[in-house]
Specification:
mainly alpha; 16 helices; 369 residues; globular
């Protein structure tokens, strides 16, 4: 257990670069170096993480812990992988609240935000190569993007798209489909501001953790719908800042929730938001771990996931466009975003270094002004 705790604390402290990089580091650590798993066993765990909602790399960590040491290993691996990033993000959130409006901090975020838009764009293209497997899925994705633009709740967009694809691919489309599509007639959620409470923060982030497929970027669609548009707990620029913090810190991108929780309700909010968004992953891994072989063979589960993945891609695209309006505000930020995108597409530099470079560029531009 000590060895398990130490290795995941180290990974949680040094795993920069997003879920794909995290999984590559785990494969090197647990397959090549420690031989805890065969490559086939490790790929089974990665595939299972893709079939359930939540942060994929964190769930792979939890699966590895469960495979290594059962229930205790599941808890130790997950907590130790999350803890370093959560602590670091809490400190950054405190500094942001305390100093975020000072010129120096504003200059850093000015450059970082432009880089984040390029990172989201690169992720969109990478996910599209995997998610858009057919013309039919592309059409479903466009429909999901249109629904998201019109203000329908993200969980409804994901669920309906997944069900439509599963039913149509199974050749069972009938009048019963109206009961699935019908909820789209409900329209967008209200826009009245609501007071902040820890119970509401917990429930919202439990929902996010239980329904978000794909990546930390999909989380942004849910956060924007609920915390920016519906409750008005966050502003659009604060959401972009939260994305930036999730990118330049190690560990799970979902620790963006820690930052947001601190912004809306201080330290208790950070603790509650972090617990809420990660708890579903622990529960889902514990339930699904014994079922992995069966899930891999299920055609229905695969078809539903194909639909959910393409809807996730659509949500990411819509939110990315909306965040771009808040981040690309002048010629320097536009140039910085284009240069960052070129570097990412050529794989010339990691996203971590780009974020740091964006911070430096932002400081220089503001100093020259």
């Amino acid at each position: 257990m000590k060895e398990l705790a130490l290795v995941f604390l180290r990974l949680g402290t040094t795993a920069f670069g997003g879920p794909a990089a995290h999984i590559a580091m785990m494969e090197d650590e647990f397959v090549r170096q420690r031989a805890w798993l065969t490559r086939e066993e490790f790929l089974d765990l990665v595939g299972a993480a893709g079939l359930i909602p939540g942060p994929s790399s964190t769930e792979v960590a939890i699966y590895v812990g469960h495979r290594r040491a059962g229930w205790r290993g599941l808890l130790v691996a997950g907590v130790c992988f999350i803890l370093p990033a959560a602590l670091l993000v809490t400190v950054i959130a405190w500094a942001y609240v305390r100093f975020g409006r000072l010129p120096a901090a504003a200059a850093l975020l000015y450059g970082i935000k432009a880089v984040i838009i390029a990172i989201i764009g690169q992720a969109l293209l990478a996910f599209a190569r995997t998610a858009v497997k057919s013309t039919w899925l592309a059409a479903l994705g466009l429909g999901a993007a249109a629904a998201a633009t019109m203000g329908y709740p993200p969980v409804l967009v994901l669920g309906v798209t997944g069900l439509v694809h599963a039913i149509l691919r199974s050749g069972r489309l009938d009048a019963g489909m109206a009961s699935v599509v019908g909820p789209l007639g409900l329209g967008a959620s209200g826009v009245a501001a609501t007071p902040v409470s820890l119970a509401k923060v917990l429930l919202l982030f439990l929902k996010f953790g239980a329904v978000v497929f794909g990546s930390g970027y999909v989380l942004l669609a849910f956060v924007r719908a609920d915390l920016v548009e519906r409750t008005h707990w966050l502003t659009e620029p604060q959401l972009v800042d939260a994305v930036a913090v999730g990118q330049f810190t190690p560990g799970p991108v979902f620790t963006t929730a820690t930052f947001i929780g601190y912004l809306v309700a201080g330290l208790p909010g950070a603790l509650v938001a972090t617990a809420g968004i990660f708890l579903p992953s622990f529960v889902l891994v514990a339930i699904s771990a014994p079922l992995i072989p069966r899930l891999r063979r299920s055609r229905v589960a695969g078809r539903f996931l194909d639909g959910v993945n393409v809807a996730s891609l659509a949500l990411m695209a819509v939110v990315g466009a909306q965040l771009g309006k808040a981040a690309i505000i002048d010629v320097p930020t536009a140039i910085l975003a284009l240069v960052s995108a070129a570097a990412l597409f050529r794989r010339a530099v990691s996203s971590t270094w780009l974020v740091l470079g964006g911070a430096a560029a932002g400081a220089i531009v503001q100093w020259l002004r």
